[in-house]
Amino acid sequence: MFFITYLWRELRRRMRQAIFIALGLAVGIGLVVTVTAASAGVKKAQSDVLSSLYGVGTDVTVTGSPPKPPSTGSAPPKGAQTFQMGPGGATVCQNGKCSNAAGQKIDHLDSAGYTSISQSKVAAVAKLKDVKAAAGGLALSDTSISIPKNFGQAGGSLPTPNSFNVDGVDTSHLSLGPLSAGSVTSGRSLKGSDANSDVAVLDSGYATSNKLKVGSTVSIIGHKFKVIGIVAQPQGGSPPAVYIPLARAQALGTEGTSSLRGKVNTIYVTAASAADIPTVQKEIKKLLPAATVTTASSLASEVTGSLSSTAKLANDLGRWLSILVLITAFAVASLLTMAAVARRVREFGTLKALGWRSRRIIAQVMGESIAMGIIGGAAGVGLGFAGAAVITAIAPKLSATVASATGQRIVSMGPGGGRSFSPTATHTVAVPMTASVTASAIAAAVLLAVVGGLLAGSFGSWRIARLRPADALARVA
């Protein structure tokens, strides 16, 4: 009790100095908490973007390699539709048969963005040592274009194709893939019994723009699918517009002129643990050498825009700035404590004359320093919460830009022959940033406060240990 009473009286007697030391520590700790909260907010924003692209619970995504565009002058793919302008007007040709393009509507569901993978490879991936679960999917694009009757005539022009993305979902593994990241806003999601049904779940943005709701029908290459649910995806990426059962996607989709029955072009994988992700990536690459294997970290490196720049700034500049401020705060606290010890030589001489040993005086000084550190830590946490609130209030929305295959196959004929390519499109979204103070940040603040107090007390104790009893008693006289 005497230790606590003496400590409390000393802090009250030197309140101005105690407040100054605690405030210095509070500023340093508050900045660390604020930077940590901002960094956590950026990471959460990144996670929201990736979850929309990747799906909840997905650690590794395997996709078929993008098809190589043929060189100029090469013939178009066998069975591909081609447009050709000639003296007689515009014609569309396929498999050697040509007809007048005017007034025709062309609609196809294609997997041109990725080459296909046998569905049997999904089971092979699932059996790998460090894989917890694996599910196949089909990323398709429904592209349709209506050729006007006056196309090829004076003033006639080719309209822009209408295209939307379709995702074939394995209804036996609904916890993996893009659909798992969405939250149902109306109706219900797909379930196991829907495997062979003509039912669809729509993205909320697509449903709103096309004035669709639960109970409506959506047409995919002329086949009617009943809308059973609408889902909202997290901000980020370019989520599929329509989700249908994988078996139906395989039955309707094509890769060039080949059927996609028994095939997938995406495999979603969950590793047994986070530490196993690199191993899983290597195992899959060995099993499927031609496929593209990506993890969340590698996918994050492909996301550009202000979100990426802010993440780098928070991780690099913020971390070093916090370290420098902490060093300064600890140095100031240590110097002030040493100065206080120098002014208390007479007091320590009296205590030694009363029989106090050096270690008891050192313990008293250490206790005072730790108490000031804890007070500074509490104030620092408060400043950290205030800083996080300010950042949330004034921070502009961040942008994330992701490049993805459109799924369209463009084939054209010209004097040099046919050309075919699969374009990519960039999708930019605004991502709100919310700085949040986590429990780990608070724990780190408390730890830093104690460390700061110990450092300041250690320097003061070093000064006391060097004080000779004769010098201390001489000050008393």
How would you describe this protein?
By secondary structure, this protein is an alpha+beta fold. It contains twelve helices and 22 strands. The chain folds into two domains: 2-48 and 309-397 and 432-476, no CATH class; 65-290, no CATH class. It starts with a helix and ends with a helix. The chain is elongated. Residues 405-425 have low confidence and may be disordered.
The N- to C-terminal Cα distance equals 30 Å
| DSSP strand content | 25-35%
Unreliable residue runs: 405-425
The number of helices is: 12
User: Domains counted in the coordinates: how many?
Assistant: 2
Averaging pLDDT over every residue, what do you get? 74
**Rg, please?**
34 Å
Helix fraction by DSSP (H/I, runs of at least 4):
40-55%
The protein's oligomeric status is single chain
- Summarize the biggest pleated sheet: 11 strands, mixed
Class per helix and strand makeup: alpha+beta
Q: What's the number of extended β-strand segments?
A: 22
Shape: elongated
